[in-house]
Design a protein that fits this description.
Blueprint: E1 13-15, E2 18-23, E3 26-31, H1 37-42, H2 47-69, H3 71-74, H4 82-95, H5 126-129, E4 135-139, E5 144-149, H6 154-157, E6 166-177, E7 182-189, E8 193-194, E9 203-208, E10 217-229, E11 232-235, E12 242-249
Amino acid sequence: MPKQISPVVKIKGKIDGLNYFESQDGYMVQKSARFSKDRYLTSETYDLTRRNASEFGIAGKAGRLFHKAFNAEIGKAADSRVMSRICKAMLRVLQSDTTGSYGQRRVESGNMAFLEGFDFNLAVPYEAAVKVDAVATVARPTGLVAVSLPSYMPKEGIVAADGATHYSFFAAAAAIDFAGETVTAVQAETEDLPWVRTATAADSLELNLPAASPLPIFVVMGITFKKIVNTEVFRFSKKEAALQLIGISQPEPPL
């Protein structure tokens, strides 16, 4: 392989079809190889590469659909890498498919449990901000999704953002058709609640999806913080809010 011999000028990069680079043997130069799309698509050499790429693509499409389902909620509470983390989680679900062949495995055939407890904002994990157990109940025959909260003391059950005087819970439920690439989603939110030492009454957020859906149903719960001064509301950034996937309901497998 040709070697760069100039002791002064050391080149890295590509120039006129030549690739200049540094190796353990010094600065080298070689002719750039041309990538053949036809060879990639047909050669046995690239078989595993094609299968890997196919599954990354399938997981990425599922991740984008999941993001779309909860786009409004992600706009309230999420970190900057939530999209890539969703796709990574979807890849784990896809890889748990025990029926499809490598390269053709599907998210809808995988184990959705790998998504349980997914936090949309790692800077503020939901369980670090909320010490109150919310329970999601999905009645598939009617489509009613209820997220129930017990009575609690806000100052003890909620770890508020610095300077916050109020907070609100929000929830969403989505029936996602990964194969058909469609989503049905519904949302609900509490009023602004004061962060005080007075116990709240038990409460519930109710969401109505189509009855008897044959699709997996996902339920998320989040919290945002506000500062209210003389009736004027100042909302905190989504980076200081929390959102978590708290429930998954999968349809009964066919007999």
